[in-house]
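We include the pair:
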Amino acid sequence: MISGQKIAVVLPAYNAARTLRQTVADIPQGIVDDIILTDDCSTDDTIGVAREMGLHTIRHDRNRGYGANQKSCYSAALARGADIVVMLHPDYQYAPQLVTAMAGMIASGQYDAVFASRILGRGALVGGMPRYKYVFNRLLTAFQNLVMGQKMSEYHTGYRAWHRSVLEKLPLLACSDDFVFDNQMIAQTSWHDFRIGEISCPTKYFPEASSINFRRSCVYGIGVLKTAVEYRLCKWGLRRSSLYSDSAELRLPAAVPVRELAATIEARLEQRSAA
């Protein structure tokens, strides 16, 4: 805990068996109260390793996607009473030691969300980020800052901390189940005027670390551009989007038993599609 606030780390996992132990070993155990892993139907022994380590685990019955994985992670954290939730990839690409600093920035009452930026400082290229990804990152970030009226160093990090109030407010079920989920969630956070902070974070690129290929990076980039443009059109009142809805039905179902979260989320999405 920090200042009486319960800290949970959530690990959205897919084929992370080789890096999971190292990631968890570097999480500050004296600060973190709960570690939750959601396995998105991995083809390796991620779930076995997680259970052997004593982590609270949720397993999707099929591969639902990176965004759907996070929805389950956050729902579980809320259901288990977390006040501050830190999302950390279990592939050891980011420094787990920064959990304390990120959670502390929120516990201080100064921020509602904190992102670990690979761009602040020299962490990205020094850590081995492919140059084309670095260039795309900078161009997309510049575009979103301009269109969305923000001043962030990076929109694309996979290391983020949230206050409970943010996760309870955002209509996350309206977000994609794919990689653009991350970007849509930031847009929603900005839409609701939550206070966003950043912290510099080193990164590591190595064979075991997860990374999307060039084709999927391009698909993600197009999704980012669409998200920014849609955000601006909605701000101008020229368009309406479920991403910025106040509907309670699009918020995470934190009041159901943890073992039923994935099924509950899927049922809500199917009901929405049918409507």
